Amino acid sequence: MAVATGREYLLYINGEASEPADGELRELIEPATGEPLGKVALAGEKDVDRAVDAARAAVEGDWAKTPPNERSRLLHALADAIVANRKELTELETRNVGKAISSVKAELSVAVEHYRYFASAIASISGRSNPIGGSLLFYSLKEPVGVAGQIVPWNYPLMMATWKLAPALAAGCSVVLKPDEATPLTALRVAELATDVGFPPGTINIVPGGGPTTGAYLVSHPGVDKVAFTGSTATGAEVMKLASNGIKRLTLELGGKSPNLVFADANLEDAIPSSVWSIYYAAGQSCEARSRVLVERPLYDDFVNAFSDAAGRLKVGDPLEPETQVGSLISQNHRDRVHGFVEQGRDEGAEVVLGGEPGDGSGAFYPPTVIAKVENAMTVAQEEIFGPVVTVIPFEDEKDAVRIANDVRYGLMATIWTGDAARGHRLARRIKSGLIGINMPYTAFPGIPFGGFKQSGFGRELGLETLELYLETKSVIFSTSPKPFNPFGL
Ligand code: NAD
Q1: Which residue has the CA at smallest separation from atom 12 of ligand 1?
Q2: Is 173 a catalytic residue?
């Protein structure tokens, strides 16, 4: 394997690897083996100060004035460098997160497309102009917000960093990004590659560290102009409070409990395998995992059997094996949490029809689990389990399906499986979520806005809307009149 164990991974500040000034070195554990993977530097407050200073110097120096076509060229060059280094990055991510390498390869390809999308989307940054009355001319300028403090979770470290870095850099912002302390490796490597391809020092700074410490300090930092956060709803609420200090611009991409509606007229040859993928991809550790499958009553029993049969055939195991479809969870602690929800489901009267017991050994494996006889008010149907656990709930008709689909505090994604296209579009308007798939399970397309309704957050990733969130609009009004205004008549 290309990635050596036992290495030390330092912070990345001002275009170079950097020892922590007041942080610490922490052992990283490989989730699938329970063995040490390397040591990572965690940033302390002085390190965040240094990173923010470097980002400030970049954005107040030449970076924000870089012509858009130059930023576009750099983003394409970074995409090329990621492709050229894909083997190393894929292995780093797989070993750091424990996720199946087949998934990680797909995520890397999509991440590359996201860099390319924003490299092209830069061309769409423009203000507008308008003659006001006879002698006033208005035009607007789009200027980078400044220093972006970005915080990402552990479930898709490479892709989440991409979703944050690409639009911010395209807009001309500089970035201080805090990956999760457990999964910083690919973000650190991407920052090195960015310097190699020509991003100026200070444009990308990576400060791995704890959430309530490093993360909270970054969010509250007076040198940060905009906070972009991806993580749980509970942490998002905390970040919102912290960002109010200094009235920072804020976007939140938070949790989900997304429904997957299966009507009796659906093409089950597509709906069943796609629904299995929609929950068990990344071992269920996805914000948009369709973790509540809602099935029209006459189909319920047959669906539960067929779905469980398909889920039971997934290949769970060594994430580095190309055939593996479901790797390990992120940690033993997280596995215990996932299992706690399953036990709670049993206690509340639901029936575990597949899986439901942790794997043996030191890896953090948990099998694909199906819970049937679920009512939507149960904890397993309301809380984000963030593991390979699906609840299957019956519904009576369209109205009932929409009622159950909307009866959660989240609203990130919903998928509708039906042979009636008109019904699909009807429901798309009635379900409260940021993304709807009709007979289509996938997410995260470059250019298609991604983000939440309700407590799944606000702001959008991946679209032109995202660029706007890293830009300020400045209105300029110019008088062409030869007459002075002299408003006081002086
Ligand atoms: P988390 O909220 O515990 O942590 C997310 C990040 O926030 C980590 O980097 C963490 O260190 C940091 N953090 C924690 N406390 C903080 C604080 N007080 N101040 C600042 N930063 C802090 O979430 P997690 O368990 O790591 O990630 C899983 C969650 O992320 C799930 O809820 C999932 O749905 C969500 N998620 C959402 C999206 C989306 O696009 N909507 C994408 C991926 C993950």
Answers
A1: 211
A2: no
DSSP state, residue 321 = S
Helices 101-121 + 86-97 axis angle, to 10? 120
384 ligand 1 Cβ < 6 A: yes
C-alpha torsion sign, points 219, 225, 230, 233: positive
Query: Alpha-carbon distance 221 to 206, whole Å?
Result: 15
As a whole number, mean pLDDT of residues 294-299 equals 98
Distances 170 to 43, 164, 250, 469, 470 between C-alpha atoms, Å: 26, 10, 18, 12, 9
Q: What is the pTM of this model?
A: 0.96
CA distance 330 to 342: 17
Q: What share of the chain is helix, strand, coil (3-state, %, to 5)?
A: 40, 25, 35
What is the spatial distance between Cα 405 and Cα 454, in angstroms, rounded to a whole number? 13
Strands (E), 81-203: 129-132, 136-144, 147-151, 174-178
Count of positions (residues) in the chain: 490
Residue type, 17: A
Please, are residues 32 and 326 in contact by the beta-carbon 8 Å criterion? no
The tens digit of pLDDT for each residue in 401-422 reads 999 999 999 999 999 999 999 9
Amino acid at 179: P
Q: Which of 164, 180, 235 to mutate to test the pocket of ligand 1 (most atoms within 8 A of CB)?
A: 235
